Amino acid sequence: MEAVKTNRKYKSSMFTALFGEKENLLELYNAIENTNYGKDTDILITTLENALFMEQQNDISFVINGKIVVLIEHQSTINQNMPLRGLVYVARVYEQIFGGRNLYREKAVRIPKPEIIVLYNGVDPMPEQQILKLSDMFLDFGIEEVPNLECVVKVLNINKGHNEELASRSKLLKGYENFIYLVREYAKTMDRSSAIIQAIDDCIRGDVLKSFLERHASEVRNMLFGKWDWDIAKEVWQEEAREDGVAIGMEKGVTIGVEKGVTIGREEVFSLLESGMSLAEAKKTLNLKKGRRFKAGN
Known about the structure:
alpha/beta
């Protein structure tokens, strides 16, 4: 019997499902900012689908009290390009809200200020809090120089045992931390599928995220046992990148060579995927680029 394939990005699915609900989102944001927004607080959800993180939705964006807040869950090593990603994301949200005729008004349009927060729960060591700035990525930027454009990203470590004061302000966040911890612990002695099932059952019995898991049991299990397999997807991308790269190297008459062709193909495909394209769109774009290169070279 074929083993059940679990979603390698199980945390992302759980995160967006749990905190995508208004009351839960308010509780999480109140805990992060140490505020006290009530249940009647107006929230405009502005989450962009597949904007920056390929096929996995691990971000929640919303407008509250004059601010655009982007919450991003991050499971791997912190990407130092997060400020650039955040800038692009916020720009797209602004376009979504104020695009069209508003951009041509003579009077200044009042816009909500951005706030980008990354919640880190990967396995690599990380401090309790970290600040990433777009200006730190600028070329030839002086220490005393004032940036003409800035984007600041706050990174918070939400692994169990870190930022405990923050976790104490949100029962849901603390429960989520425990869920991730249990999955990792059980995965040390059993397969991932069994580890996830055991973690869910233990959380319900221990009154950890009990209400959420009981109300959304089938949806949660479907997310956790989805058909999407992250490792297989990456292998497919790498294989297709290799094939495209070899084709580029060969069709250029060994000027670039196979090794260089492989590198070019792989880098271009991953760059397109990272920009938010689907695999099909990336492949189509790459084929168009190849056509232009070959035509120019003839």
